[in-house]
Amino acid sequence: MKVKEKFNTPYNSKEVEEKIYQLWEKSGFFDPDKLPVSKNYKLKAKSYCIVIPPPNVTGSLHMGHALNAVIQDILIRQKRMQGYKTLWLPGTDHAGIATQNVVEKELKKQGLTRHDLGREKFIEKVWEWKEKYGNIILEQLKKLGSSCDWSRTRFTMDKDYAKAVETAFLYYYKKGWIYQGDRVVNWCKRCQTSLSDLELEYEDEKGKLWYIRYPIKTKNFPPKAGQPFTEKLKTKNYITVATTRPETILGDSAVAVNPKDKRYKNLVGKTVVLPIMNREIPVVSDSAVEIEFGTGAVKITPAHDILDFEISERHKLSIYKVINQFGKMSKEAGKDYEGLSTKDARVKVVEELEKENLIEKIEDYDHRISKCYRCNSIIEPQISKQWFLKMSELAKIAKQAVKKGDVKFHPKRWEKIYFDWLDNIRDWCISRQIWWGHQLPVYFCQNKQEAISNSQFLISKQIQNSKLKIKNSSDSHFIITTESPKHCPFCKQCHMKQAEDVLDTWFSSALWPFATLGWPDSAKATAGKLNKDDLKEFYPTQVLSTARDIINLWVTRMIFSSAELLGKKPFNDVIIHPTILTKDGKRMSKSLGTGIDPMVLIEKYGADATRFGLIYQMMGGQDIHFNEDGIMAGKKFANKIWNASRFVLLQIGNTKLQIQSPKSKTSADKKIISQLIKIKKSVDKDLGNYQFGQALHEIYDFFWHQFCDVYLEKSKEELNAEILIYVLSESLKLLHPFMPFITEEIYQHLAIKNKKMLIVEKW
RNA sequence: GGGCGCAUAGCUCAGUGGUAGAGCGUUUCGUUGACAUCGAAGAGGUCGGAGGUUCGAUCCCUCCUGCGCCCACCA
Fold first, then answer.
1. Domain with A433 in it: what CATH number?
2. Which of A444, A554, A724, A735 sits at a 20 to 30 Å CA gap from A482?
3. Same domain, A485 and A628
4. A19 sits within 7 Å of strand B by its CB
5. Is the pLDDT confidence value at A416 over 50?
6. DSSP 3-state assignment of A29?
7. For B14, which residue's CA is nearest its C1'?
8. pTM given for the model
């Protein structure tokens, strides 16, 4: 009768889940240092650790986060039950530009910009945001049932974490791999910062290709003032270039052709007169120029195109910065153009050229433009002074780690993405001109800083006019240190000023798996908790589970950072989980209204059902066309488990049974036991291969169709209480990693000798 | 321009070198005590197209088509 009171039907997930989570937290079993040691549960000498991919504190969790959390929780719970000293370390990421942008959007609603507040006040606001949303995220992870050790929660801007970031920066600098340089970078004119190549998104654009004639300088050309170009052009004395951006003509400093291009052989070394600007610029030869494309001659705008910049370096060309950081034409573009948008400037330039009969033809041309991955503004390549991390050595190290098999991708095919990127890598631009992030540990002398006021947009006249670019700021006076300097070593009197730039958020994320475990001072207290030596105990970690879109942005960088800074791999296995799309295969997006909030599903169906639905659909494809029916099936399954358990308990009453080695009597007993053994093996194998969906399908079929439909029905005729409760309890164990709440709740009610909580029951 | 993934029942997806499977949906039947969020039975597919290997192909190979994704300094 007691049983009946506690076991109402149908199953009520809401009540149970809240209660059970509290029970777990109270038990302390999420903390590897507090795991119980007993006869049945012996801790293995080996540890098992997953460090969570830290969600950005920009908002709340989406379906992808939910799926990933469940994947990790399944592994963690299985390993914990297997007796490993198991740690799942949680945390969040400050997510530089992304978070700064959402806070700026909030301010905009009040008609404010970050500049109205000033850096310090603005940062305060972002911290407020972080407190709010960081905590929401952690609460949502709990709702899903995540068995993280919350006492070890980390944030990428914790004090100790900052120490790790500075240490890494200093290390690379000492090695000569970090340098400052004036180079063309991807510039977002809305975010007002540089971006790395990986922080771009691309969009096809229907554009035009303008073929423009550049007159060649001769004895009689250019003509004296007042005489139009056209007179002389009849002699075919020009070279035609093709461009998609005529407005950048104003910043041209050369025309380049391929050295193998016979058509232009005689022109190399000659001088042409740049239309509109009337600037005399050279014709150079460079193998980067494609013979086949356009006319085979390309105009070179070093300040606003990455390839052009590289060519200009090889030929020591002048640099004219004609577009400013806001995407408007600069002073350098000339009086007629200064202040115009690039779009207006383009119209004007084309008009001018047409007037002079310098446009040969205009073709339709589809190409792709880059956009900021955070705000979707069009990228304006710009020359600017930035900090770079040299990649050649690090790329080699990263390739080694995967080639040797130290780190394995699942599925393996994603290794190709990894290698392809590393094979074509450029140096990493690690400085950002935003406010939210780790400021560079670079301190400048205040008295000798004219050349380095701050690292953005320092193109002095000196650079434009000279044929050399400044290398590595040899004229600036700064030091790099992990401690704030007390005295200036240069002038001995100033208070040194820290660089205003912050680091690319991925520079700090790259340190995540080891910085969270205490690196560089691993034995010291971290984040308010005194850990014995987590780095020694838990590093390298076992698994990293993440989405495919950040393989290079994040995974690769963790691998080389760890290899270089610690001489170890960060994890053994990388699980690239499927991307969750809508049922129709569309991207889930809040703004399109196609997103599904996992918290709503939990509210509606329960966390176990939500977990079930996600994993049940994870069958190895690279996408999941998410179908709510799967969650529905999960809810029904939970109810089935509930009722089957109710039945078992009604059959056997409250006598505590010993279930170590139950004796089979009938053939049905034998059959169910052998099926159970088979399923256990199979689930172990699947989970070992990270085949989560397959494992769940098998348990589902076993429990429902073999245990319930057949064995339970048989036991109505002939009861073997020991077998009955044995198979049930073993099933609950197998199910627990997938559906932890309901299994733990039922387990509480089982009359079994020497019973503990299911979370630490022997797998 | 290069690469990757996918194409099986109305929908979402498993699967195997030898007459095709699940869940949901659908049809019929079954309501006395674990569960109608259930049980039993059934209908439903020339496994995208064309070649090839094979005694035999949904599965292996080639090509094609369609959908999705990623990468690239042809301006």
1. 3.40.50.620
2. A554
3. no
4. no
5. yes
6. coil
7. A619
8. 0.92
Is A250 part of a structural domain of the chain? yes
The DSSP call for residue A329 is B
User: For residue A452, what pLDDT is reported?
Assistant: 40
ipTM, 2 decimals? 0.94
Q: A283 has which bridge partners?
A: A255
Q: Of the candidates A576, A596, A631, which is a domain's last residue? A: A576
Instruction: Identify the residue whose Cα has the smallest distance to the C1' of B70.
Output: A417
Same domain, A745 and A621: yes
Q: Is residue A227 classed exposed, middle or buried when 0-12, 13-18 and 19+ CB atoms within 10 A define those classes?
A: exposed
With vertex at residue A562, the alpha carbon angle to CA A561 and CA A565, rounded to the nearest 5 degrees, is: 75
Beta bridge mates, A179: A388
pLDDT of A74 over the 60 cut: yes
Strand B contact with A151 (CB < 7 A): no
Domain that holds residue A256: 198-375
Residue–nucleotide distance: A752 CA to B23 C1' (Å)? 34
Instruction: Say how many domains are in chain A.
Output: 4
Confirm whether any atom of chain B, the nucleic acid strand, is less than 7 Å from CB of A260. no
Q: In chain A, which residues from 579 to 598 place their CB closer than 7 Å to nucleic acid strand B? A: 583-585, 587
CATH number reported for the structural domain that contains residue A656 in this entry: 1.10.730.10
Dihedral of the CA atoms A708, A711, A715, A718 (nearest 10)? 170
Nearest to A696 by CA among A616, A606, A599, A587: A616
Neighbour tally for A437: CB within 10 Å: 27
Q: Are residues A274 and A341 in the same domain?
A: yes
Q: What is the pLDDT of residues A263-303, one digit of tens each?
A: 898 889 989 989 888 899 999 999 999 988 889 999 999 99
Lowest mean pLDDT among A78-87, A678-687, A752-761: A752-761
Is A585 contained in some domain?
Answer: no
**Residue A221 sits in the same domain as residue A284:** yes
Q: Does residue A529 share a domain with residue A550?
A: yes
Query: What span, in angstroms and rounded, lies between the C-alpha atoms of A100 and A112?
Result: 14
Specify whether A448 is located in the same domain as A418.
Answer: no
